[in-house]
Each structure stands twice: as C-alpha cells, then as structure tokens.
Amino acid sequence: MSETTHTQLPKLYIPGPVDIAPETYEAMCQPMIGHRGGDFEALYASIQPNLKPILGTERPVYLSTSSAWGVMEGAIRNLVQTKVLNLCCGAFSDKWYGVAQSCGKDAEKIQVEWGEAIDPDAVRAKLAEGGFDTVTMAHNETSTGVMNDLAGIAAVVNEFPDVLLVVDTVSSLSAVPVEMDKLGIDVVLAGVQKALALPPGLAVFAISEAALERASTTEGRGYYFDFCEFEKNTVKNNTPSTPAISLLYALKQKVDSIAEEGLEARFARHAKLNAMIHTWMAKHGFENFAPPGFQSKSLTAIDNTSGRLDVPAFIKTLRAKHNVLINGGYGKIKGATFRISNMGNETEETMQKLIDQLDDVIPSFL
Ligand SMILES: *Cc1c(COP(=O)(O)O)cnc(C)c1O
After folding, report:
1. Distance in Å, CA 8 to ligand 1 centroid
2. DSSP track, 114-137
3. Is any atom of ligand 1 closer than 6 Å to the C-beta of 145?
C-alpha cells in the first residue's frame, strides 16, 4: 500500500467496513506462526478472556475465517431439524429466510416493513403454532438502522424450551450490551468489520450447551462450519482449519483495547456519538428512519423518503470536497435513506469533523 494511494482513499463513515485503527494494522503485521502449535494456542487462548465479556458469555468464543454469512448459514445447517422461524425486518434478516431454504430447510418468516422492529408478541403467537426449533434475528438491522428488542424477543423464545435463538450482532457487538448467557441466547455471531472495527474476513461466535447438543444430532452439518468441530478444537485452543492468523492478531489487539477502554465506556461513547448525528439530522429537518425506542446506537439511517435530498449527488460532493464516505442507503431503500456510522473507533472529534463537513456541503442541496 503506497502512501499516496492510502491518503487518497476516503475516511469511512459507512456502516461497514469501518475505519481501522493504525494499531490494528500494525498488529496484523506480526510474523506468521504455525496454527498447530504452542504459539498459536497461546494466541487463541489470550484472545478469549477479553472477548467473552463482549458477547456476555462464559462459553468459549469460536473464531471462523469467513464473513458473518458463513456462520449465519452454518447456524441453519447445524441447528434446524424441523423448521426455522426467520424474523425479517431488513436486508440482512430478510436474506436469512432465503438462505434457510437454499440449505433445504423448512422455513417460515415474520416479515415487517423495512424501518419497523420485530414485535415480541408476534414471535410468541407464531411459535405457539408449533413445529419450530430455531429462530433467527438481527439484533441491529444495519440496512434500516433498527435495533430490535433483544431482551424482549429472547424472553419470548425462552418460553419455548425446544426453540433455539440465533442472533446476528454484526453491527451491535461491543457498541451496546449483548448479554448472551443472561438472556439465554443460543448463538451470538458477528463479522468483525463493523462494530468490532477490524478488516473483514473473520467472524466470532459462541453457542450454548443446548445448541451444541442440538448440532451433535443434526445431519448434513458439513465440515467447514460444523459447530461440533469448532467445539472439539476450541478445547485445544485451536480452530478446525487454518485461520486468518493476521486477523487473529488484529482481534487480540482489539479485544485488549476494548478491555482497556472498558465496555461501559465504549457503550457510552457510542450512545454519545450517535446522539451527535441525531442532533445534526434534526437541525436540518430530517427524521430517523427507525422508530423511537428502536433506533440503532451504532449507525443512523436517515429518512429521505420525501426525496428532499439528492443522496447520490450529496455523497459524491461530500467525498470530492472532504474525502469522506457516508452511505446512500441499502437495497430497496437506496436513496430513500442515507446512513452514517458511528461505530468502532470514532470519537467526538472525528464525528464533529464529519458534522462540519456535512454542514459545509448540505446547504446547496436543500
Ligand atoms: C454486514 C452484515 C451482515 C453480513 O455480513 P457479511 O460480512 O457480508 O457476511 C449480516 N448481518 C448484518 C446485521 C450486517 O450488518
């Protein structure tokens, strides 16, 4: 990476991948080690103590060399024996329904409009029909900026002892509390390129004892994402196949820096920076695409359904003038929303800088 190329690239305020800390890049440049040996086992073991509290679990956290979707598909293959209920409220959670079917599983969904949250009572009503053994959901639906009521939904799923809950926390993990053990969640998973602010290519996940037991009796789990293989290897501080060791160095640096900041402080920082964007949005007469009470703390999806702002032109000008990148909306709400991330390493200073740049460009667009 030449200095010039690097400096010409925009600073990212898109909701993933996000900006990477220089210390993280530095950590990735450590010498390669063999993954079947003591040096690797020491690295793997050293990551666990500071990673587990981020997921809110005492269980080991498995490291998967894949993006989040590898584990999301894996959860379907490992856990669904009868039928899965997919809670769909945006691009990522919707897609899980199709993925379940493409894995040959029986699937049903609860679908709400993009911009709405999942209602725990609707989940209870659906599960009461019977026949389900697994539920999937996105904690923070990155495409719409909706943060679902994780505790509420988990409590409902726990009313049905044979139903396992799988939660995608890609854009919420370490930005807000995720209490896997306390809430009785069976799988917590995340790709690392969003809230954890690492380069893409790695996913972290933990599974409950019940999920492990279920997996052990599920046929057709395959190999690469076989939960039982992850368990068998984690007890030896290892992974089933050769992992992205450079990303594990980065993860080690990240979980240590999160421990140093403190989880509570990290949550508070995300809330504060998110509020800065909300204030900016209101100042220019925009509203949040997500309803009150369900607004993400790690990004903001700003409602432009009126078409008031020419989103592509605004983003282009912002980049040309200030070399920063925000996102113009995802999938079918492209242009009808635009999204600003405050997740990962952002500070009051970096968010204020963005706000000044937004303020500089926006008058000619309104
Ligand atoms: C980005 C994202 C994903 C998909 O992650 P990949 O890295 O593309 O596999 C899944 N869920 C949510 C909520 C996301 O934000």
Report:
1. 26
2. TT-PPPHHHHHHHHHT----EEEE
3. no
Omega within 30 of 0 (cis) for the link into 31: no
Band (3; pLDDT cuts 50, 70, 90): very low
Is residue 69 within 6 Å of ligand 1 at its C-beta?
yes
List, for residues 63-102, the tens digit of each pLDDT value. 999 999 999 999 999 999 999 999 999 999 999 999 999 9
CB distance 240 to ligand 1 below 6 Å? no
Taking alpha carbons only, the member of 350, 179, 190 closest to residue 272 is 350
Q: How far apart are CA 355 and CA 279, in angstroms?
A: 10
| Residue 147, helix vs strand vs coil | strand
User: Is there a contact between 138 and 106 (Cβ–Cβ < 8 Å)?
Assistant: no
Encode pLDDT of 153-205 as tens digits: 999 999 999 999 999 999 999 999 999 999 999 999 999 999 999 999 999 99
- Looking at ligand 1, which residue's alpha carbon is closest to its atom 5? 68
Phi, psi of 292 (to 5 degrees): -55, 140
Give pLDDT, residue 179. 98
Residue reference for tokens 């669904």: 80
| Per-residue three-class SS string for 208-234 | CHHHHHHHHCCCCCCCCCCHHHHHHHH
Residue 211 has pLDDT above 90, yes or no: yes
Alpha helices in the chain (DSSP H): 3-8, 22-28, 38-55, 68-79, 91-102, 120-128, 150-158, 180-183, 209-216, 227-234, 245-261, 263-283, 311-322, 348-361
Structural domains for the chain: 11-20+262-365 (3.90.1150.10), 23-259 (3.40.640.10)
**Dist. CA 128–CA 124, nearest whole Å:** 6
Residue 243, classed as helix, strand or coil, is coil
* Pairing of β 287-288 and β 299-303: antiparallel
pLDDT of 7 over the 80 cut: no
| CA pair distance 132, 159, nearest whole angstrom | 13
pLDDT in the model for residue 2: 42
Secondary structure of residue 289 in the 3-state scheme: coil
Phi-psi region of 321 (alpha: psi -120 to 50; beta: other; left: phi over 0): alpha
